Structures are given as structure tokens and as C-alpha cells.
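Whiteboard transcription, Tuesday session. T.W. wrote the C-alpha cells on the left side:
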């Protein structure tokens, strides 16, 4: 008999991941869904196959009837608070799988708290944009005891993701450690593209010509983000794809890891400074790609292209 699954957290990533769990995995019971804003959970439910999900209004209800609980929340405080609430009930024998992007110390503390209550824990942060979450093309990073990781894998490759990075029998925090460092590659990519497109425009090459080079040499994320910059998507959308607040949280964690290790990440420092300006200009609706607007302003252009 397949285990009862529940899902906590329906942000940009969580919605697509949740959808693929319902549509692609072999669930013989409706997926239990909880979101702090219940309306978002109801809106998702109507998009899912009839009878394949059920919405609950408390974390206690999401955890109480589940064998495996997936969580995907925005920051360290949110996941810590959610797990704290979950652990107030009887969780003995349950498996918690956290897909949040948080500091590795937070992940390891969550693991200890969960294990102290007789439950189990696997870290499973993911790489990929919301569109990849929607299409089931994420890269899942799994860490924790091998036997527990094996219980999670049926919901990763071929369901929520296209590939797995397996850190079995390593501390759960190793998964989020990789995720934080990996996200600096994305941040630096956006910074590089923003500076390149701004220089191309001001020096007379033109953004179209630069984009032709990018899509020829760097197909994939570079080309996708280059397209976002050129189309103005970085300032036009109502809901950010990669919110500036979350991007700065990741940058802060990376810089903290670097400081503790005696490493200087100057690229991240520059990009984070630009993110701070995006926050000032756009508030919580700002997107990581808004770095382009800030770099443009520094060059004497308008924020909007």
C-alpha cells in the first residue's frame, strides 16, 4: 500500500511540484495539501484531477494523517515555525522531506528536532525555475540516511524532477549547502547578463546581437534569462519568478558560509548590492532579474528597457 502523502507550502515552486506529485506519482490516496493562505490551496485543487487531493486548514491536519510530509517554504523562519507546529503532535515514524532553500545549519537543526520526536528527515532542495517545477524538470538534491532517501526517490526523478543528486548517508545539511552555493551561480549569471546587455546597448553592439551569441554558446538558463531581460519581463510581471527577498536571503546565506570558511565572494557581494537596489525600487514584487534595471540605471539608462 502506498504511503499517505501531504504537501505544505504553495509558493512558485511548490505549486508545480505538488501538481506533478498528484499527476505523475502512484498515489492511491488523495494528496493532503496545506497552505497558509487556504485560497491558494483551493485554487490549485480545482486544477488537479478530481478526487486526487484534499485541502486542510491547519498544519496539524496536514501532518496527522500523513506518512510522508513534504515541505517547501520560503525561508528559514517559515520552515522552522512550520516544523515546530508539526512536532507538537504525535509524529513518531513519520518522514519529513524538506524542499526549502535554507542555511545548512537550519536543515541540520530541523533534522535533530524531528529525530528527537521519533520521526525521520530527508533534505530535498531542488534546482530549477518555476517553469521547470511545473514541467517536472527539476534537479533534486537528496541527503540523509540511505534507507530514507530511497523512500523519497520515487517522487523525484520522473515525477518532480529530471535528475537526482544523491548524497545518501551524508548529513541533511549537505544538500542545502550545495543548494546555497549553487544558487550563487544563478545570481552571478544574472549579474553577468545584466552587465553584458547594458554594455551591448550602450556601446552599439545591440542586445539582439548579444542574445544571438548567448543562445548559440549558452543554451539553457543563460538564454532563458537573456530573453527575460530583453522582453522586459524583469519589471512587468505581477508575481516574481525568483523574488528579490528570497534571492537576498540566499545571498546572505552564501556570504555567511564564505565568511565562516575564510573565503571572499566579491561577485556575490556586488550582485547582492544590486538586489538591495531592486528591493528599494520594486519592494517585495522585485525579481532577481531586476538587477538588469539597476545596472541600466548605473549606466545612465532607465530601469525599464
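and on the right, the sequence the group agreed on:
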Amino acid at each position: 500500500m502506498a504511503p499517505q502523502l501531504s504537501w505544505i507550502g504553495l509558493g512558485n515552486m511548490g505549486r508545480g511540484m505538488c501538481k506533478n506529485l498528484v499527476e505523475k506519482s502512484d498515489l492511491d490516496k488523495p494528496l493532503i495539501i496545506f497552505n497558509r493562505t487556504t485560497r491558494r490551496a483551493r485554487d490549485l485543487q480545482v486544477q488537479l484531477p478530481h478526487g486526487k487531493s484534499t485541502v486542510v486548514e491547519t498544519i496539524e491536519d496536514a501532518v496527522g494523517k500523513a506518512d510522508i510530509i513534504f515541505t517547501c517554504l520560503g525561508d528559514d523562519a517559515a520552515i522552522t515555525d512550520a516544523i515546530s507546529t508539526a512536532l507538537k503532535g504525535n509524529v513518531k515514524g513519520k518522514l519529513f522531506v524538506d524542499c526549502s532553500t535554507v542555511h545548512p545549519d537550519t536543515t541540520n537543526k530541523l533534522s535533530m528536532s524531528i529525530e528527537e520526536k521519533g520521526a525521520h528527515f530527508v533534505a530535498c532542495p531542488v534546482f530549477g525555475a518555476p517553469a521547470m517545477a511545473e514541467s517536472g524538470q527539476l534537479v533534486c538534491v537528496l541527503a540523509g540516511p540511505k534507507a530514507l532517501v530511497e523512500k523519497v526517490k520515487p517522487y523525484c526523478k520522473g515525477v518532480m524532477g529530471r535528475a537526482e543528486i544523491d548524497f545518501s548517508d551524508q548529513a541533511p545539511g549537505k544538500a542545502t549547502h550545495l543548494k546555497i552555493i549553487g544558487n550563487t551561480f544563478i545570481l552571478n549569471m544574472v549579474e553577468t547578463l545584466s552587465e553584458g546587455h547594458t554594455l551591448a546597448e550602450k556601446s552599439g553592439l545591440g542586445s539582439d546581437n548579444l542574445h544571438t551569441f548567448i543562445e548559440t554558446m549558452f543554451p539553457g538558463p543563460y538564454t532563458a534569462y537573456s530573453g527575460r531581460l530583453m522582453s522586459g519581463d524583469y519589471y512587468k510581471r505581477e508575481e516574481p519568478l525568483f523574488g528579490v527577498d528570497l534571492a537576498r536571503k540566499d545571498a546572505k546565506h552564501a556570504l555567511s558560509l564564505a565568511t565562516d570558511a575564510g573565503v571572499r565572494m566579491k561577485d556575490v557581494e556586488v550582485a547582492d548590492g544590486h538586489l538591495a537596489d531592486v528591493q528599494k525600487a520594486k519592494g517585495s514584487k522585485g525579481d532577481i532579474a531586476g538587477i538588469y534595471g539597476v545596472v541600466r540605471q548605473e549606466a545612465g539608462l532607465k530601469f525599464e528597457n
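Someone added at the bottom: The first helix runs from residue 12 to 24.
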